[in-house]
Amino acid sequence: MTERPVFDGYKPLDGSYTSEGQETARLREAVAYWTEPSEGPSEKEQLAAFLEALDQAESQLHNAAAEGQENAVGRRGAARLRLSLPARFVSVERTHSCILLNISQTGAKIAILDPVREGDGGILQCGKLSAFAIVARSEFSLNALQFEHAISHEDVLAMRRYYETFEDRERRKLIETARKWASGESDDERAM
User: What is the pTM assigned to this prediction?
Assistant: First the structure.
C-alpha cells in the first residue's frame, strides 16, 4: 500500500500540489484516502484534532473582539449577523421606523424611508437592544450605523434569538388579538 499524505481539507500539507488544474487529481486522492483503510490516525483522532483547531480559531476571534481590535474580521470591526427586523431609530429630529438588516458588535445597517444625514446620531431600538449610534454612511434608503460603544457578543446572540422567534411571537399576538375581539374582551373602548 502506498503512503498517503496528511490532508487539510483537499490540499495535502506536504505541498505536493502547487499548480492550478490539479483539482481532479487532488479530489481523487482525497476520495481514495477516505475510502481505503489506513494505517494513519483514526477518524476519531482526526476529528479531535479538527475540533481542537476549531476551538483555537474561535478563541482567537473571541479574544480579538474582547480586546477591541479593529478589523478583526476583514475590513470590519466584527462579524455581521444578517436580519430583517422592525426597529426604531430615535434621532434628535424625530423617531424613524426602519428595518434592521444586519448587526455586529460595532455597528448595524438599517433601511429607512426618511433621509438621515451622515454624522447624525440617534438610538437604535430593536427588541431589548437600545444603543447609541452615529450614521457612518447613507446611500439612498440604506444607512450604516457605528455604535458609540461596542455591544457585547451576548447582545448580538440575543438579537439572533429574538430574530429566530419573532415571526412566531407576532403570529401568537395576532391570534390572541383576534380571539379577544371575537369574544368581546377587546381593550379597545370604541363603540361598535
Answer: 0.54
